[in-house]
Specification:
Elements lengths: L1 H20 L1 H9 L3 H18 L6 H4 L7 H23 L1 H7 L4 H4 L4 H22 L1 H18 L11 H21 L8 H14 L8 H6 L5 H5 L1 H23 L4 H17 L5 H25 L1
Helix pairs in contact: 1-2, 1-5, 3-5, 3-10, 3-16, 5-8, 5-9, 8-9, 9-10, 10-11, 11-14, 14-15, 15-16
Length: 307
């Protein structure tokens, strides 16, 4: 517990120290953190936790004082790893961002690319060191996620150019985070439910194609063949709506409680309405998406006390 407390203080202190020494680049990293995507992974880590304790008393976890800081440290390691993923993605996407994301640091010219990349490498190194000091599961999870995002965004692979495969890779990263949450809660890798693994990798990841809609102009001009680029915005939204319906329906069927069906139906309608709303705005869709994930976690954790 003492070691974990020290690691927590160091992890929180690094950004403040960096802000005093390198204020410009630190502010740019903070402003470009993409909190909704980080919340997505935090929700999936907690999903693994909730899944493990769905039939157990969660108080047994909180009675183990040595484990209380493991989850906060996992989320912190994910955030540091996310900085590396964001920075390398921004470097790889300069031409696209000149069209679709003109507020990114490299496009504004507020940071030098070499210094920016060094900051990303430092954050990834710290994420790996932190996770290695806490738990081997965390270490391998952060390593796999970071490798997945690198081959997704960067040359020579740059798999984000290939529709479906790109989102399946994101789905795999999402599954890795959920499995880490499950194992860190006390579960065994082999016991992670296959049906929930399928849920994360297929409908959930394919529904996440909505994140590419706002970048359709830049992606189209730089040869990144996302679903909206290939099908056009209107038809892509129709297909994303189908994946979204499958996501909510599959979650409801797996849980299989009468009151969950109308709840999932309401969330699905809100989600779909926002997908079709003009002008298109990603932020409220992300808010519904993240809310639904956290809602799923709450249902898994506390439903046993309500039935």
């Amino acid at each position: 517990m003492f070691t974990h407390s020290i690691l927590l203080l160091i992890s929180i202190g690094i950004p403040f120290l960096s802000l005093s020494i390198y204020p410009v680049i630190t502010r740019e990293i903070f402003s470009d953190l993409r909190f909704m995507r980080i919340l997505h992974y935090a929700a999936l880590a907690l999903f693994g936790f909730a899944l493990y304790f769905s039939n157990l008393d969660v108080n047994t976890y909180f009675s183990q004082s040595d484990e209380l800081l493991v989850f906060p440290l996992f989320i912190i390691a994910l955030i540091y790893a996310a900085v590396f993923a964001i920075i390398t993605n921004n470097i790889a996407d300069i031409e696209t961002d000149k069209i679709s994301n003109t507020r990114r640091p490299l496009i504004k010219g507020t940071v030098k690319q070499a210094h920016y990349l060094l900051a990303g490498i430092f954050c990834l190194s710290y994420a790996l060191i932190l996770s290695l000091l806490v738990n081997s599961t965390m270490f391998y999870g952060i390593l796999m996620i970071s490798a997945g995002y690198y081959i997704y965004s960067c040359k020579p692979f740059r798999l984000k150019r290939i529709p479906f495969i790109a989102k399946l890779l994101i789905g795999f990263n999402s599954l890795v985070v959920a499995v880490c949450g499950f194992v860190l809660a006390g579960g065994r890798l082999n016991d992670f439910p296959v049906i929930w693994a399928v849920f994360i990798v297929l409908p959930l990841s394919l529904a996440a194609n909505f994140v590419d809609i706002k970048d359709i102009a830049g992606d189209g001009k730089t040869g990144i063949k996302t679903l909206p680029v290939i099908l056009g915005e209107k038809r892509a939204i129709h297909l994303i709506v189908f994946f979204t319906v499958c996501t909510y329906l599959m979650a409801a069927v797996i849980i299989n409680l009468l009151w969950v069906y109308p709840l999932c139906g309401i969330m699905a309608i809100l989600h779909i309405t926002l997908l079709y709303r003009k002008p298109y705005n990603e932020k409220p869709i992300f808010l519904i998406y993240i809310s639904a994930l956290f809602g799923l976690n709450i249902i898994l954790l506390f439903n046993k006390y309500l039935v």
